[in-house]
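your task:
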Amino acid sequence: MLVSAVDRGVLADEVDAAEDEQGSAGVAPWVATRGELADMMRQAKGYDIRAITNGIRLQTETLLRMIAYVEERVGVPTPVFVGHAEWFFAILDATGITEKQAPLSAHLAYLYKQDLLIDPRMDYVLNPGEHDPAPVAAANVKVWWLETPGSLDSYSYVDHNSDPEMKVTMRRVIKYRLLDLGDRIVCEDVEGLYGRPNSGLLGLMFRVIGEGRVADYRYAVAADRTQVIWVLCRKGPLSVTSLVTVHPDGHADKGVDRDKPDLVELRERLEKDVEFEYVPF
């Protein structure tokens, strides 16, 4: 629903903050309802949407469906605000699980009141001109919780289902560019998201240099719904890339099986350089 001055309710502070982010050229965002989000999540097929390792995929696919849904109703690309409570309870509705069974990443986002604003207006994302490959959709995404007395600057959790285990740290404000390139999803120009392996050789290295900033996150999906993820982390002058294969049940393995041509093709696709000129965000 499009938010109005008299229909803000408990979302007042969050929606005001979302509108502030749009600046003088902003428009009132569409406020996603719990029911709308749950409907978008139910369209996810072939993978476990409860798994932490499938969390970014679920979020991305849901957001892309949501902005298409809103544009169809409004007639033009429109920013969408997603409240933390609406997102969390939509997951419960879509999966049939209880609060205690919710994935850790979703539970923490709810506890920290982590809201989201996605702005799919292309002119606010990419500079004018031709882009190769041309995005099917492009958006600015901001994830944040309000700064209040006593509020923390960040929180962390460990994903025990990945190999190697990963520690993920969320700053209070996270920003990134979301690009749907048709055959892959690219999250670039990331700010506020950090991570490091907790085990293996990379774990030893990051234990020395500290957490790296996630600068670029990409994924592509095979016909059997297996997901290949490519991540670029930076720490000062150092940069490290990681490849992860996430199976539909959420189990993750480092690297890509060379005996599976379809996954190798996804890896090669993800490793291709892409260059986009972004509007300041």
Observations:
- Residues 9-271 form one domain.
- The chain has one domain: 9-271.
- The first helix runs from residue 12 to 22.
- Residues 137 and 259 are 33 Å apart (CA to CA).
